[in-house]
Amino acid sequence: MTDITIKSKDGGTFSAYVAGAEEGKGGTAPVVVVIQEIFGVNGVMRAICDGLAYQGYVAVCPDLFWRQEPGIQITDQTEEEWKRAFELFNGFDVDKGVEDIAATIDHMRGFDGTNGKVGTVGYCLGGKLAFLAATRTDSDCNVSYYGVGLDEMLGEADKIKNPLLMHIAELDKFVPPEAQKKIIDTLSSIDQVEIYHYQGVDHAFARIGGEHYDENAAREANLRTADFLARFLLTDAQRKAAEGRG
């Protein structure tokens, strides 16, 4: 577990948390880019990376708020932190964020100990960006948890070339029913897209410790994500090893 520096496509640099890397030891692990929520590369995102590393991946979470303030690590536990999180969200340049994800993908394809395959998993804001990674980058597969604003991005749906898994919360307060219907109706006809609709749960149902965390829905979604990533990123031998780790 360490932090690395990645060059942006417009000449800057940003940090990223990496778990599962064993530099100098070779290896053939695929990469998963974990795309942050509105709270930065905080403990929740780092724990997700650590969990993916245990499953046999090299997991990396880039700091996408670096253009506003580098090193953001806040929680969802106080009103002050929520206020700051929404300030960062409202000031976020989505197009630049996707460029930074693309730069991360490019960087990690050649990272020591990896096999060149790279997928993404994003949550909330990151769920939106995971969808855009599917339409604008060469990522091998993508997973979107309760992405926000996707109904405004559906004009890009015909650009999806690699597998995309979507987890949608029925009671998502940031994605009203009409937006959910539009998303599902548009994307369900695309062969590369898998969609699951979780009944009776709200936004961020998979955020451990969050107000709307739902253990059963989170477990179901995470198992589907694990299977999806294994199908498209792991070899047969790597899948067997991951199953052995439980």
Descriptive overview:
The protein has a single domain (2-236), classed as Alpha/Beta hydrolase fold, catalytic domain (Rossmann fold). The longest helix is centred in the last third of the chain and has 19 residues, at 215-233. It has 246 residues and is α/β, with parallel strands linked by helices. The protein has an eight-stranded mixed beta sheet, sandwiched between helices. The protein has helices at 43-54, 79-90, 94-109, 125-136, 177-187, 215-233, 236-245; strands at 2-7, 13-19, 29-35, 58-62, 114-123, 141-145, 164-169, 193-198. The mean pLDDT is 94. The chain has seven helices and eight strands. The radius of gyration is 17 Å and the shape is globular. α5 links the parallel β7 (164-169) and β8.
Tell me the CATH architecture.
Answer: 3-Layer(aba) Sandwich
- The low-confidence runs, each spanning 5 or more residues with pLDDT under 50, are none
According to DSSP, the number of beta strands is: 8
Helix content: 25-40%
- Please tell me how large the radius of gyration is: 17 Å
What order do the strands of the largest sheet run in, or round the barrel if closed? 1-2-4-3-5-6-7-8
Order of helices and strands: EEEHEHHEHEEHEHH
Cα distance, first to last residue?
A: 21 Å
Q: Write down the CATH topology.
A: Rossmann fold
> How many domains make up the coordinates?
1
Q: Look at the structure and name the CATH superfamily.
A: Alpha/Beta hydrolase fold, catalytic domain
Looking at the structure, what is the overall shape?
Answer: globular
Helices, by number, come to 7
| Beta-strand proportion | 15-25%
| Overall mean pLDDT | 94
- What does the largest sheet look like? 8 strands, mixed
Question: What class, by secondary structure content?
Answer: alpha/beta
Can you tell me the CATH class? Alpha Beta
